[in-house]
Structure formats: C-alpha cells, structure tokens
Amino acid sequence: MKSPGISVRPIITLEGGHEVNDVFLDNVKVPVENRIYHENQGWTCAKSLLLHERSGIAGVARSKRGLERLRQMARSELADDTGPLLADPFFKRKVAELEIDLTALEYTELRTLAGESAGKGPGPESSILKIKGTEIQQRLTELTLEAAGHYGAPYLRNAPHNLGAVGPDDAHGVAGAYFNVRKTSIYGGSNEIQRNIIAKVVLGL
Ligand SMILES: Cc1cc2nc3c(=O)[nH]c(=O)nc-3n(C[C@H](O)[C@H](O)[C@H](O)COP(=O)(O)OP(=O)(O)OC[C@H]3O[C@@H](n4cnc5c(N)ncnc54)[C@H](O)[C@@H]3O)c2cc1C
Questions:
Q1: Ligand 1: which residue has its CA nearest to atom 48?
Q2: CA angle 114, 59, 204 (to 5 degrees)
Q3: What's the pLDDT at 2?
Q4: How far, in Å, from the CA of 186 to the mean position of ligand 1?
Q5: Rounded to the nearest whole angstrom, what is the distance from the C-alpha of residue 188 to the centroid of ligand 1?
Q6: Which pLDDT score, from 0 to 100, does residue 122 have?
Q7: Mean pLDDT on 184-200
Q8: Position 19 in a domain
Q9: Number of structural domains the chain divides into
Q10: Residue 204: pLDDT over 80
C-alpha cells in the first residue's frame, strides 16, 4: 500500500458507514518477489480465491443468530392490539419461510464443507451459496426492520434530524443493517453474474 501510484478514496455505504474504498493503481510497479502465483495468471488465481470468498459471504451462522434475534424482538413487539408480532400469522409465516430456506442453505453449506475436508476445493456451488445466503440476509434485515417499526429509523447515522436513541434497545442498528446489507447481492460478483456461472458450469448452458 506504500508503493508509488496507489491511492485510496473512501466509499460511504448507504447507512453512512465507511468500510470500503475505491483503490486506484496508477502504473504501480510490483517487485518480482512480491508477485502472487504465475505471471499473467492473476485472474485464474483471483477466481479460485473468489470461490472461497463466495462461500464465506453465505454467512449461515450470522443469519442464524440474526433469526434468533428477530424472534426475540417479535415476541415482545406488539402488532396493533392483537398481541406479540410473532403471534401474527402473516409475520409468523414469513419468519418460518425464512427459517426453512436458511436450514436448506445450511445443509448445502455442510455438503460443501464436507467436500473441502475431503480435499475437494469449493466449486461452482459457492455461487449457489452466495445467491441464497445474500437473499436470506436481505430478507432477514427487512423483517427485522419491520419488527422494529418506526423505532428503527432514529438510529440511522445519516438520517436528517437524527434525535438519537428512542424505543427498545433491540431496535438499535436495525435500519443501518437493512441499508448496509443491500450491498451483499452486488459484491463478490453480483448475483446475476453468479446465475451466469451456474448456467455455464453447473447446467452446461
Ligand atoms: C460494498 C461493496 C464492497 C465491495 N468490495 C469490493 C472489494 O473488496 N474488492 C473489489 O474488487 N470489488 C469490490 N466491490 C465491487 C463489486 O465486486 C462490484 O460492484 C460488482 O462486481 C458489480 O460490478 P459493477 O459495480 O461494475 O457493476 P456492472 O458490472 O456495471 O453491473 C451493473 C448491473 O448489470 C448486471 N450485469 C453486468 N454484467 C452482466 C451480465 N453479463 N449478465 C447479467 N447481468 C449483468 C450486474 O449484475 C448489475 O446488476 C464491492 C462492491 C460493493 C457494493
């Protein structure tokens, strides 16, 4: 990062956080001893690393924790005068559908991990993990924001007239997470590109 020609420009994500940057490489010279993999085969190397990145993006464990947190919130939140939100059949159904999809994803991930333990690197199934995992993360943050209702909004860092904390503690950060997680279907190769990979490598189209 100290080499001449490298410059870094911050990108502010939708919720107002700074965790990513534009990195520009302008005629940067890399000494041969710092080269990674074979000359002119950088993309081959990057593609193999991306398989691992995409498996990681699936984020099953994080979504399981998020689902448990959502359940806790929905047990205490009241849906109008009808009792806890989780007793509302429409909301309960959305939570159940999410859990079913997450469980199916977990088993797909376990199959991939079993393959890796047996010395088989992740293959194109990492694209399946990436698509399903990110769709679940987005549905989960949508439902969590729905459970927090209007208490979610004041915690947005870049909200106009941000008044700070009001409402229950578990509403904290919910709106920020909702906006931040929109990125997941884009980064690591957009989900449309993952569908192209599955079409080509898995379905042979
Ligand atoms: C928060 C965040 C973090 C990121 N972190 C990194 C990082 O650490 N390192 C890094 O190198 N990059 C990073 N990226 C960049 C990311 O990988 C790209 O944004 C992503 O690959 C999409 O490329 P693009 O933005 O150029 O969109 P484009 O390629 O311009 O695509 C625009 C739209 O067209 C669709 N599209 C494009 N081509 C096709 C096609 N052939 N078939 C069907 N649909 C198509 C895309 O899916 C998308 O919806 C990050 C992005 C975000 C948002």
A1: 190
A2: 60
A3: 92
A4: 5
A5: 8
A6: 84
A7: 96
A8: no
A9: 1
A10: yes
pTM over 0.85: yes
* Residue 131 within a domain: yes
**CA 142 to chain CA centroid, nearest Å:** 13
196 Cβ inside 6 Å of ligand 1:
yes
CA distances from 189 to 41, 85, 117 (A): 19, 36, 25
- Mean pLDDT lowest for which of 70-79, 136-145, 185-194? 70-79
Write the single-letter amino acid at 142.
Answer: E
Other CB atoms within a 10 A radius of the CB of residue 10 amount to 9
The domain in which residue 186 lies consists of 48-202
The one-letter code for the residue type at 175 is A
Distance 26 CA to ligand 1 centre (A): 21
Residue 32 lies in a domain: no
Predicted local confidence at residue 90, as pLDDT: 94
**Token representation of residue 144:** 């969590």
Q: What are phi and psi of 84, to 5 degrees?
A: -60, 150
Distance CA 38, CA 42 (A): 7
pLDDT band at 23 (very low <50, low <70, confident <90, very high): very high
Q: Ligand 1 centroid vs 53 CA: distance in angstroms?
A: 14
Cβ of 24 less than 6 Å from ligand 1: no
Which atom of ligand 1 is the closest one to the Cα of 19?
A: 1
Does the residue 183 lie in any domain? Answer: yes
Which domain CATH number covers 128?
1.20.140.10
